[in-house]
Amino acid sequence: MGGTALAMAGISDTAGMLRGKGFPLADLDKRRRNGVGWTPTNVAITCFDGIAPSPFGSLGDVVLWPDPERLAEVPLVHAPPLRLSLGEVRHDDGTPWACCLRGHLRRALEDFHAATGLTIRASFEHEFQLVGHNGGPAFSVEGFHGAQAFGEALVAALVAAGCVPDSFLREFGPGQFEVTLAPKAALEAADDAILLRAIVRAVARDHELTATFAPILDAGSVGNGVHIHLSFWDGDRPATHDPDGPAELAAVPGAALAGILRHMPALTALTAPSAVSFVRLTPHRWSAAFANLAVRDREAGLRVCPTTARDAAGRARQFNVEYRAADAAASPWLALSGLVLAALGGVRDGLATPHPTEGDLSEWSDDALAARGIARLPGSLDAALDLLEADAGLAAAYPDGFLPVYLAHKRFEIGETAELDDPARMARYAAVY
Ligand code: GLU
Ligand code: MG
After folding, report:
1. Which domains does the chain carry?
2. Relative to the CA of 59, which of 31, 36, 300, 365 has its CA 20 to 30 Å away?
3. What pTM, to 2 d.p., does this model score?
């Protein structure tokens, strides 16, 4: 006899994990109306399932409301379909909960639109490694074809979930692959990024493979980046590109990007928030090590990307900038809300478009960097959290009570691997992300 079809309502939480609760699929409409009970203390559960100190303890209740628009249903061959509905956590009277990461992002995007008249589109580019898989040489046809069955199942699964896959490729690192999605309205793009990670892992399991998005597995090699592509739109009119602007950026997007650069060292505590993330954020790994903007430079914190369109209208529509200092330890909702809030601050303060840097910043002296106002990204999660705590602008942009909970969570997580050496710490993260 067949079982009863189950679905899961979930959130991408402070640990960057997708957690939630299951119920009979037939009850989905009822769950959408009434919500699913959720526990405030869950915000303190780390990626290693430790529980950080929080104000909540065993007390209180909040409610996870599954998205009424979207149930991602992903068929698998050797397992039941993955049925996922992402949602927002609110108080039981429907008012916002200070620790709801999707709520933060939704409000940040609304505020950005109210202040500028512009909307933001985003696309998350993900790298991951298939553990123990002989990926074949970097970018090779053998590597690609060796994983093509997995790749084809993955692309089909992403389409079934409502994502729009753009590419699947054998990347550079051992067993490393990359999958990209087409840009979408920013909130939906972040939802897609959350679904994508769950789908990659599920399809990998279906193929008896194990996928890890951990920021870095081996200090002697490259890491797994999450590059967040951003573009700015006035309705359906592209508003990022101005052929006469610095780095071909229009003024408002330029101010927004200057705002991101201003906060970037502190933002890494939200966008690359694991104890191993900062091994990846070092020079010559093609990740990001400085708070700089550069054109077509894969070591830049913000990279102005090339376009394939050669005509002006096509180029304007494709024109985008990617934030490279992110990884999959971060909730896409939280990483993107940090970027949008920093961007909004830049617009409100009328910042000038950053001047693009040229050359290898790791060869610049401290004085040369300081003269250009370019900060190095922090060397550890500890240092990043201290910068976040001291960043009055970002602190004021989040609801009261959220950042102290986040800081306590992440500081507790640091303690969970403090006794380990780097390789052992990376192995711990590889097992959970
Ligand atoms: N693996 C690099 C990173 O950690 C990115 C390589 C690339 O796609 O440019 O971000
Ligand atoms: Mg890549």
Report:
1. 6-102 (3.10.20.70), 112-432 (3.30.590.10)
2. 31
3. 0.97
298 pocket-lining for ligand 1 (C-beta < 6 Å): yes
Q: Are 330 and 270 in contact (CB under 8 A)?
A: yes
Mean pLDDT in residue range 405-431:
97
Residue 1, pLDDT above cutoff 80: no
Q: What is the mean pLDDT of the chain?
A: 96
pLDDT tens digits, one per residue of 84-108: 999 999 999 999 999 999 999 999 9
112-132: burial string, b at 16+ Cβ within 10 Å, e else: beeebebbbbbbbbbbbbbbe
Q: Kindly report the backbone phi and psi dihedral angles of residue 80, in degrees, each rounded to the nearest multiple of 5, phi listed first.
A: -60, 160
The DSSP line for 267-294 is HHHHHS-STTHHHHSSTTSSS--BS-EE
Q: Is 297 in the pocket of ligand 1 (CB under 6 A)?
A: no
Q: Name the least confident of 20-29, 76-85, 130-139.
A: 130-139
CB count within 10 Å of CB 341 equals 27
| Residue to probe by mutation, ligand 1, list 298, 299, 302, most atoms within 8 Å of CB | 298
Q: Which pLDDT score is estimated for 134? A: 76
With a CB cutoff of 8 Å and minimum separation 6, the contacts of 30 are none
Whether 177 contacts 152, CB under 8 Å = no
Q: At what angle do helices 332-348 and 251-271 cross, to 10 degrees?
A: 140
Residue 133 in contact with ligand 1 by CB distance below 6 A: no
CB 251 within 8 A of CB 169: no
pLDDT at 406 over 80: yes
Give 9-75 as a DSSP string.
EEEE-TTS-EEEEEEEGGGHHHHHHH-EEE-GGGGGB-TTS-B---S-TT---EEEEE-SS--EEE-
Which residues are bridge partners to 395 per DSSP? none
Of 106, 101, 14, 109, nearest to 340 by C-alpha is 109
Mean pLDDT for 215-236 is 97
Burial of 219 (0-12, 13-18, 19+ CB in 10 A): middle
